[in-house]
TrEMBL record:
SMART domains per the UniProt record, alphabetical: RING (SM00184)
Species of origin: Castanea mollissima (Chinese chestnut)
Keyword annotations from UniProtKB, A to Z: Metal-binding, Zinc, Zinc-finger
Protein name: RING-type domain-containing protein
Region ranges (Disordered): 1-25
GO molecular function per UniProt: zinc ion binding
Taxon lineage: Eukaryota, Viridiplantae, Streptophyta, Embryophyta, Tracheophyta
Amino acid sequence: MGLGSSRMESGSPLDPDSNYTSIRVDDSDEEISDRLVCPICFTNAKDLAFGCGHLTCQDCGARLSDCPICRQPIEIRIRVFIE
Ligand SMILES: [Zn+2]
Ligand SMILES: [Zn+2]
């Protein structure tokens, strides 16, 4: 029995402070995305504009035949890129 493997692994303790930081970042992010979120599903970002100027996400916009905000018939759909 000569398998004398005596390795001491020094475990790094978890930092509870790092958890706190991610919560604060999440909170401020919500405030910004609230203005950019689709008014129909409240899930996706607005990335589709209609001829009237209103915006929804692509998922909702594809199913609509008229604008849910001003009820104008949708004749054109424009892809919007928000950075
Ligand atoms: Zn949507
Ligand atoms: Zn509209």
